[in-house]
């Protein structure tokens, strides 16, 4: 049996040395060390040996198995390394070739405009607030002096979910929520940017979903002159130091008195052109003094506190500032359009 084991070892090592394929190496492993392999077949006859011979033959068998296993592992590692080297050689990359350019994105134009406005008002002591886009009828209308069946509700075509739940038509509900949060006990300044929704036909100047930024300042002895001064700073920072503003009487249910703000046309500098339709002025936003009823419903004493509010559309500001003539360009995700304003 000793001679058989030695013969198996010699034969196995010769075959291992002569093979150059990983698959053939696995077949050799099975042929000699597997359950039906040559070494296993010889070992099955150990039962016929004497007690003195079994340990001797067992030791020899273990050495033969270890020798064959080591030779298989060494050969396998060698073949795998050779295969890897061949693959790397075949798939060699010329690192001197120029790489493909990676196009980098940038902030959306509306994002840049909103952030620019936020930075401006934060610098004037305002905090930035947010609120839910799915709003209640109370905060969207009633808390802003628009009770049920008020005719001014028709000014805003609303997406209703239920009788009391809707998609907010402006960001003014955030103002109402903030005033109620403070419970009429402290002055504050805030702006609230966000998406709003109205049932409108999409065209060059209208969209069913757009962006608004509203501002609110509540304190003692707040006057219309404070509103005008704030809006004058805003206009000059956004459109240039040579811009002038004018306030025209208007109507909003939640402010009294209410105004529309115009800026002087940057194209004709107030002389009149096709952009400003010959007037020399371009409407930019609305605002006014907070209605005493709105203050009262939020817990503020209108005899002690006053405030001003204003609202603007970042899309309109971007269109005027950068000469965009179609609001739909902001939402169609045309990379040719967006790429123009990566540095905006």
From TrEMBL:
The reply to whether Membrane figures as a keyword in the UniProt entry is no
Q: Which domain of life is it from?
A: Bacteria
- Uppermost EC category: ligase
Listed under GO biological process in this entry are:
phenylalanyl-tRNA aminoacylation
Which GO MF terms are attached to this record? Answer: ATP binding; catalytic activity, acting on a protein; magnesium ion binding; phenylalanine-tRNA ligase activity; transferase activity; tRNA binding
Instruction: Provide the catalytic activity annotation.
Output: tRNA(Phe) + L-phenylalanine + ATP = L-phenylalanyl-tRNA(Phe) + AMP + diphosphate + H(+)
- Pfam families named among the record's database cross-references: Phe_tRNA-synt_N (PF02912), tRNA-synt_2d (PF01409)
* CDD domains recorded: PheRS_alpha_core (cd00496)
Please tell me where Mg(2+) binds in this chain.
256
> Per the entry, which co-factors are needed?
Mg(2+)
What's the Enzyme Commission number for this chain?
6.1.1.20
A GO cellular-component term linked to this record: cytoplasm
Query: Mind listing the UniProt keywords for this protein, alphabetically?
Result: Aminoacyl-tRNA synthetase, ATP-binding, Cytoplasm, Ligase, Magnesium, Metal-binding, Nucleotide-binding, Protein biosynthesis
Q: Provide the cofactor note recorded for this chain's UniProt entry.
A: Binds 2 magnesium ions per tetramer.
Q: Where in the cell is it found?
A: Cytoplasm
The Aminoacyl-transfer RNA synthetases class-II family profile domain covers which part of the protein? 109-340
What is annotated about its quaternary structure and interactions? Answer: Tetramer of two alpha and two beta subunits.
Record-linked HAMAP family: Phe_tRNA_synth_alpha1
Protein family (similarity comment):
Belongs to the class-II aminoacyl-tRNA synthetase family. Phe-tRNA synthetase alpha subunit type 1 subfamily.
**UniProt-recorded name of the protein:** Phenylalanine--tRNA ligase alpha subunit
The source organism is Oceanobacillus zhaokaii
Encoded by which gene? pheS
């Amino acid at each position: 049996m000793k001679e058989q084991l030695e013969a198996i070892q010699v034969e196995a090592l010769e075959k291992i040395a002569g093979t150059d394929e990983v698959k053939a190496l696995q077949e050799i492993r099975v042929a000699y060390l597997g359950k039906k392999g040559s070494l296993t077949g010889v070992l099955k006859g150990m039962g016929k040996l004497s007690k003195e011979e079994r340990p001797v033959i067992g030791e020899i068998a273990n050495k033969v198995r270890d020798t064959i296993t080591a030779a298989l592992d060494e050969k396998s590692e060698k073949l795998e390394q050779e295969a890897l080297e061949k693959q790397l050689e075949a798939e060699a990359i010329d690192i001197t070739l120029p790489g493909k350019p990676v196009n980098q994105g940038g902030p959306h134009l509306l994002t840049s405009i909103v952030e620019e406005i936020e930075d401006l008002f934060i610098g004037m002591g305002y905090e930035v607030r947010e609120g839910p886009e799915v709003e209640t009828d109370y905060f969207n209308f009633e808390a802003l002096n628009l009770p049920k069946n008020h005719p001014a509700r028709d000014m805003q075509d609303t997406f209703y979910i239920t009788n009391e739940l809707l998609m907010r038509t402006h960001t003014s509900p955030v103002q109402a929520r903030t005033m109620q949060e403070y419970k009429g006990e402290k002055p504050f300044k805030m702006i609230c940017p966000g998406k709003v929704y109205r049932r409108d036909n999409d065209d060059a100047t209208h969209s069913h979903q757009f962006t608004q930024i509203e501002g609110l300042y509540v304190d003692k002895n707040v006057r219309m002159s404070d509103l005008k001064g704030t809006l004058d700073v805003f206009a000059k920072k956004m459109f240039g130091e040579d811009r002038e503003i004018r306030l025209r009487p208007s109507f909003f249910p939640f402010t009294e008195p209410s105004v529309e703000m115009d800026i002087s046309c940057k194209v004709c500098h107030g002389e009149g052109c096709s952009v400003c339709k010959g007037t020399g002025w371009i409407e930019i936003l609305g605002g006014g003094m907070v209605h005493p009823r709105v203050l009262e419903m939020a817990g503020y004493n209108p005899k002690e506190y006053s405030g001003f509010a204003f609202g603007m559309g970042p899309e309109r500001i971007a269109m005027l500032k950068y000469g965009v003539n179609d609001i739909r360009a902001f939402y169609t995700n045309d990379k040719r359009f967006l790429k123009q304003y990566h540095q905006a």
